[in-house]
Amino acid sequence: MRNFRHRPRGRSFALVTTLLLLTLYSSAQSTFPVNGVADVREGCYAFTHATLVKEGGATLSDATLVIREGLIVSAGTGAVLPKDAVVIDCSGKYIYPSFIDLYTDYGIPAPESGRGGRGAVNPIDFFRQPAQIESNTKGPYNWNQAIHPEMDAAHLFNVDDAKAKPLRDIGFGAVLTHVKDGIARGTGVAVTLANEKENLVVIKTKASAHYSLSKGSSTQSYPASLMGSIALLRQTYIDAAWYKGQPYHEGTNLSLQAFNDEQSLPQIFEGSDKWGDLHGDRIGDEFGVQYIIKAGENEYQRIKEIAGTKASFIVPVNYPQAMDVEDPNDARFVSLADMKHWELAPTNPGAFEKAGIPFCLTTADLRDTKQFFANLRKAFESGLTEAKALEALTKTPATLIGIYDKVGSLDAGKLANFLITTGPVFNEKTSIVENWVQGRKYEVKEEAWKDIKGQYNLVITSATGGSTTVVLDVKSPTAASVIAKDTLTGKFSYDGTIISLSFPAAAGGAAPAGGGMRGGARGGGRPSAAMHLSGVVNGDTWNGNGTDSTGNLVIWTATFAKATPPTPDTAARKRPNHVGKVLYPFDGYGWDSLPTQHDLLIKNATVWTNEKEGRLPNTDVLVRAGKIVRIGKNLDAAGAQVIDGTGKYLAPGIIDEHSHIAAFSINEGAQSVTSEVRIADNLNPEDINIYRQLAGGVTSSHILHGSANTIGGQTQLIKLRWGADDEGLKFRNWDPFIKFALGENVKRTTSTNNNRFPDTRMGVEEVLTDAFTRARDYERQRKAAPNITRRDLELDALVEILEHKRFITCHSYVQSEITALMRVADKFGFTVNTYTHILEGYKVADKMKQHGSNASTFSDWWAYKTEVQDAIAYNATIMQKVGLNVCINSDDPEQARRLNQEAAKSVKYGGMSEEDAFKMVTLNPAKALHVADRVGSIKEGKDADLVLWSDNPLSIYARAEKTIVDGIVYYDIDRDAQLRKYIVAERNRLVQKMIAEKRTGSPMAPATPSYHIELSCGDHDHHDGLLTIDEDGDHTEIANTTN
Amino acid sequence: MKNIFIGLLSLFLLGLTTAQAQDDVYPAKPDAGKLFITGGTIHVGNGQVIENGTIEVDNGKIVRVGADITPAVGAKVVDAKGKQVYPGLILSVTDVGLKEIANGVRGSNDFQELGDFNPSIRSIVAYNTDSKIIGTLRANGILLAGTTPDGGTISGSSSIVQLDAWNWEDAAYKMDNAIHLNMPSFLPRPRRFGLRFGPTQTTPDVTKEALAKVEEIKAFFREAKAYNAGQTHKEMNLKFEAVKGLYTKQQKLFVHADQVKQMLVAIDFAKEFGFDVTIVGGSESWLIADLLKQNNISVILQQLHALPTTEDDDIDQPFKTPAALQKAGVLFALNDNHEESRFRNLAFNAGTAVAYGLTKEQALQAITLNAAKICGIDDRTGTLEAGKDANIVISGGDILDMRTSLIEHCFIQGREVSLDNKQTQLYHRYMTKYGLE
User: Does the keyword Cell cycle apply (chain B) (predicted)?
Assistant: First the structure.
């Protein structure tokens, strides 16, 4: 009690006393030997007369903060100063709890190529490069190299002051750090940013567990797609639960054990993108986990869906840089979406606040942490409140990982992690002076402690005693001028203690006695002589010594005379930032509000029914609540929106049986059997090809896995509901399908060193037989011992096929493989629902008919590889004449918008009737996909998926004028004309805005073309434009893979 | 005699049983006699249409075209009443005959040579008249093609071939009509990683690299010019010799370019060297159509059935680019370089241009007369006019629309050529199998 002169009073003081007692009686001992004389300090400091910022942003003025042994002893008003406290007068200063960042890899070494041979990520090329089937990680760990939950950041962590300082400089005092690598990444450790031994800075080990869908440095082939990553993480949850039963054949798996052990920790998932966040949240929902989600920069584009996750978020404040778009030929390749995102990205944090989503802020993703405050201020201009930002940097992060008892506020007992600032922390003119971490001072901008701006009387005295007085006008710690007859700008610096000043000696100026300062710079030619002064600051009086322009010694004194009038905060003067609208999808052709259903009456069109009525001239169709309710002449419907169909054709919407649009990844393919992956997991509802294909009369597309492997992934039928989110695209109540593939692609014909089984069509058949054999055994085992049988996502899908609950569409070309698959199917008791491509279908059409398969083919493709040498343009006609249900598909985002023309080619090749030809892209795919009860023809009761064509839809001169899905007009040729004008105007507005930004001297990025990745099955070349990246041979870290 | 018969029969059977074989499709015999194609709707190729017209052919040349021509007694007559008669279509730039199986069969490919500056490489010497692709083109009215090498900066020279020949010397219609230059790209390329989120990272200095390459190309042409101006040379330079025709305008310079910056450089080439320049590709040509016209640069548009360049572009931009060029008065041809349907949809590319702004006759001209002009063969073909080769297509209906594009007769230099091909043969073979014929 020797520190207290008076008995403390009141409850808070009682608490303080208790804590103090604990502190006082805690031992100063540690296990570490001392080399030299022990120097144990209690570090008791009292910060007086400060404005303390407490929880919720409440301020206490003229308050005192007392700290001891790295902890806060008291923070409030009226405290008695401990006798042994070093007292620091903080008049005019603010004290904040220092900030906390949950998303760092501070002190964690970059993933090495060590640990069992981890190397840099190699682009994976399914078709050519040898596969790495097994993990390179040595030891009793998981089968997959990207699953390493056993990695414990606390074991890897090293204090790294070079990394800590930039974070301290922007106000951070504690961070959560983890290994930012892999899918199951292991546990995080919460540490302070003090430059002390690791033992002292750890706040909490195993503070969190981390996940992502990026395989990172794993060199193993699987997973090679976003949907593969999702499947792997899902399977890992299942495997870990099963591992609790100590299955004998698994032995010891330290990864799964760790995975189970860390389930009770806060679970943090790296989404980093609006859709990525949702992908993670859905996995969490499936396994009863609520992730904390690390966001990206674009959640504002789908904030409703983001709020629907009910997750807390870790939000970065990184935004794209403005681009240099002055050259119109460069600007042309920058998309409107990218320019709009540049403008709207600063609204992202505010969008979280406005939507009531709990979030904290992070420095993650910043190109330079020095941008942190500037970017925060942009967020304030765009809707974020300062109070929320403060909470998001202190209390929220601390609470999320359960360390609010230690950090996050100025309360007794917590770590002495606090900032001393010259004003409210987010003000542009405020400086963080000092950042104290665990009771130790780290200087940030010490020179800002005292505002030295103002005018000083500078008296310079020469050795001979003569003196001169001039006025020194200090503008900042780095700028000052001397006012005599003229105003001379000198060199000035102030670091909090030392002053250094030099200025030219002007003609007729204040030359000290004995000086010869004549002429100066204006004199003529010779370098100007200068006065050099150096000294220290002591309150308002500075003094020191120096030399005059002739080198004679002088001494000097500067005394504060008057303050400079303050200039207003520039942030306050800024005009409000007018920004464009968020569009759905976030694309020039998107909607600013989503369209809704209306009753529609299409009048007086030639109605192409695809039913026995055939083509009905001058007929009306009435649509209500998304369904076709009446077809007839002279219909009337009050309140219905009338569309004049005179001279036009109304036809059922086109259904593309084979498409690869609207997905983030298409091929898994790292293994020959990947039935566990699902296209549905990675739909991309913002693919511009959705809109382009609506303009080609397409209303539904079957999105297939690629053809990189024999048993590919689960497919997804979608409707082209442009503007909907990924869930909203799905065709509801649909029989699930799966993609298989045979032949050259799966045996990797173009590889010269294939090591992935199979290498021949003989092997392909065995892959199929083996997979279904395993599935049958699995199903038997599961029925016999449901509790100990590990659920296998891969085999589940195959069991569904065996049980006729899932249906195959199989990429196939030559007759041998077509027949071989039918015989495998016969053996296992199921039917191959659809053969797609099927360019030699005409050779075995009778066998296919007997088996009961549908056929979905190209109209006239051939000779792009050996297995299509015998492809003929008459294929569809022959198969149709033999009695198969034949479809024409696109497998190509361009051809998909002309499928009506592709169908028309069968009129040319083989003389198919027009009505039969058109059915190949409408009713027949509906039948093949088991949805003919709802789509594919114009019939009362069916979905109103309709296209109004300007002409006979089989004619090359026909254009879709309106494309309707579920009674909603998603494409309208007139609206499209308006959108084209909008896009031109909006692009121009943003180009001008970026150029204006360039004029302000802001850092600019070069104009960066907005590339579009065209996903494909990898079967053939695609006709891509300048800005499309054919994924063939490319590999991207997360989403996109080769084929 | 019997043995010969059996021999022929087995050859015939072999032809039927191996799908590879197509050996019973023969080039037509030369026909020196007269031919009258009567009563058809004649689409001349220059915009003119003659209803109920007749074409008189003599010794492979068109001698008269008109509405009131009576066939000579005893001459061969093809009744085209109710049919559409067109000039033979021209596929201006293609790898047909050089690349048989596009992927995975290296042995079937002869379209791309090693090296960067290969002006002396000549496609004609590798042109395979027995390619199975050729028959499918004839069957769709394509009678002439510019067989073209690819790769490097200067790929070599193309030659125009007629598509009914025993060997390449037979096929040659115009040798070495153009030198092909691939303009370096000015477009920053994306890096491989992180494509999913936000703007892509791109490689720097693409413009610098491209300009350096352009300088290298210019230096080549400056030195070639000087070389070709000289009379004798101590050492012969085959590369310089190969481009001699460019300076005398006996050859054209076909510049493969899509980006505006690439095309601007091509215009500069035309100005500096006085070359006859044609842009091949030209997907962005609509942006500078007037500039192309001012500088007399012609364009061969590749594959109209393509996606727009940018996501903000009008969704039908590629379809309406021909109309933009037409409006500006640019000489342009349409082409089909679709690798999967293998070029047989040339007429339908033109049909799409009609749906988006051209007239049918303008679109036809873009695959006949305009193509002939650009390829330097318009003195001999491209229209149905007296004095030109009898390269003629007769279709049951509108050739530009797939529903009606039913080709019934084709004549190359007056010879009626076979419309049979591997695909029709396989068709009949399996129609027979299923008893459907």
Answer: no
